[in-house]
Design goal:
Blueprint lengths: L2 H9 L21 H5 L27 H5 L6 E8 L10 H10 L5 H6 L15 E4 L4 H7 L3 H13 L8 E3 L11 H8 L3 E3 L9 E9 L3 H12 L4 E10 L1
Parallel strand pairs: 1-6, 2-5, 5-6
Antiparallel strand pairs: 3-4
Length: about 240
């Protein structure tokens, strides 16, 4: 540990970003083992396409009812944790940390959130050529000061040892909040909201699209649609959490 970091930890004692338990002066982590262990994993088995849980553990189907009826254009989506939007235990949950990061405008929590990725990702370096985050509109980016998906994508790209591509997929139109919208309303809300500025950067490339949370998959599907239209050979989606 560097002397500078030791002095910084002495002046500002490190604490768990979730429960505020004190760490030692040599700590480099942001989340304690207890809080990491309380992350709620997704129920299994999951749909082979969208990564959501199947209706029955005894089903012979490998896709959920929605993907059988209206399959997404992305090839596969996977998430690490379950996201409960109305979680009452505000200080003891990954959802709470994500909300504080995004809406509390606390960029420092980005490193804490990456610790919930765990030791193994559901994708490997053999699955993709580029890692691309879901972009924010420039107005939202100016207000927030950072793109939480880009911070997460940077860690994913580092682990997979794949290039992180920023500025190629852009949000060309501002969209209203998706929170209270139905699945169909979400799809209409993001239709035409994304564009690919440099098609040659994605042409014939396998793309891993990264975001923090997936709800219905409408945003990821629209991003995948424009990436494929620009020449990408395949788009898969990774999110830290999934709303169920």
């Amino acid at each position: 540990m560097s002397l500078a970091l030791h002095i910084l930890n002495f002046l500002y004692p490190p604490r768990c970003a979730v429960c505020e338990t004190n760490f030692g002066l040599d700590a480099r982590r942001r989340v304690c083992d207890r809080c990491l262990s309380r992350m709620e994993a997704l129920p299994t088995p999951v749909c082979e396409r969208c990564g959501g849980p199947l209706e029955s553990i005894r089903t012979k189907e490998v896709r959920c009812a929605h993907c059988l009826k209206s399959p997404p254009v992305f090839a596969r989506a996977r998430a690490v944790a379950r996201y409960r939007p109305s979680d009452e235990d505000e200080r003891q949950s990954l959802p709470s940390l994500i909300r504080r990061h995004k809406y509390g405008l606390d960029q420092a929590l980005g490193r804490a959130i990456t610790e919930f990725l765990g030791p193994r990702l559901p994708f490997t370096a053999d699955d993709c050529d580029l890692v691309i985050p879901v972009p924010l509109h420039r107005g939202r980016l100016w207000w927030r000061g950072f793109n939480q998906a880009a911070l997460l994508a940077a860690e994913v790209a580092r682990r997979l040892e794949r290039p992180l591509e920023l500025g190629t997929l852009v949000r060309s139109r501002a969209t209203g909040s998706q929170t209270s919208r139905s699945r169909d309303e979400r799809r209409r809300n993001v239709r035409g909201a994304f564009a690919v500025r440099r098609p040659h950067r994605v042409a014939n490339r396998r793309i891993l699209l990264v975001d923090d949370v997936m709800t219905t998959g409408a945003t990821a599907d629209e991003c995948a649609r424009v990436l494929l239209a620009a020449g990408a050979s395949r788009v898969e989606v990774f999110t830290l959490a999934r709303v169920l």
